[in-house]
């Protein structure tokens, strides 16, 4: 059974899914590729992990947190997991192109596949896929919506780096 919890953020409502004692997903409501809440899911807004996740996400939005410290359990293909591991290494306030992400994921000719894997990232914000941009710094693609992507990059002070 999938367990989940919901909470509000400055960029809209989010929900997270839990597997065992780890976070398996974090999504903005309405995000592309986010799993639909199902009737057999059990809501756990008061679990210790739910409270800690919400606290850290809200700290991120206030600018007092730059990295997350939560137990994670994302599930994907080996290629997706390699891409997500590289995304997780992008520092706060920095950006990386899809082409460079593909190269770092050991698939230099697969920037489109790296982009698709980025879009399937189940841990938005925590695995900061909003920091992946097009060649030349253009804002392209974000499962949570382009307005959110721009606002997240601005929050981190990366807007100037993207525009360059």
Shape: globular
Kindly provide the radius of gyration, computed on alpha-carbon positions and rounded to a whole number of angstroms. 15 Å
* Helical content band: 25-40%
CATH class of the largest domain: Mainly Alpha
Quickly count the helices.
6
- Tell me the fraction of residues in β-strands, as a range: 15-25%
What is the number of independent domains?
2
CATH fold name of the largest domain: Arc Repressor Mutant, subunit A
What's the CATH architecture name of the largest domain? Orthogonal Bundle
Q: H/E series, N to C? A: EEEEHHEHHEHH
Distance between the termini: 46 Å
* Main sheet strand line-up: 3-2-1-4
Q: Structural class given helices, strands, pairing?
A: alpha/beta
Spans where pLDDT lies below 50 across 5 or more residues: 160-164
Number of strands: 6
Q: Tell me about the biggest sheet? A: 4 strands, mixed
Mean pLDDT: 91
CATH-defined superfamily of the largest domain: Winged helix-like DNA-binding domain superfamily/Winged helix DNA-binding domain
């Amino acid at each position: 059974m999938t367990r989940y919890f919901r909470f509000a953020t400055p960029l809209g409502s989010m929900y997270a899914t839990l597997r065992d004692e780890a976070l398996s997903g974090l999504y903005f409501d309405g995000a592309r590729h986010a799993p639909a809440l199902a009737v057999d899911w059990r809501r756990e807004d008061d679990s210790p992990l739910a409270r800690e996740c919400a606290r850290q996400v809200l700290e991120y939005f206030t600018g007092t947190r730059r990295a997350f410290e939560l137990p994670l359990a994302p599930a994907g293909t080996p290629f997706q997991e390699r891409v997500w591991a590289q995304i997780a290494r992008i520092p706060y306030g920095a950006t990386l192109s899809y082409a460079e992400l593909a190269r770092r994921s050991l698939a230099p000719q697969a920037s489109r596949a790296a982009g698709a894997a980025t879009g399937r990232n189940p841990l938005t914000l925590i695995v900061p896929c909003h920091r992946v941009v097009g060649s030349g710094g253009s804002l392209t693609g974000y499962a949570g919506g382009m307005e959110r992507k721009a606002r997240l990059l601005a929050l981190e002070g990366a807007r100037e780096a993207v525009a360059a």
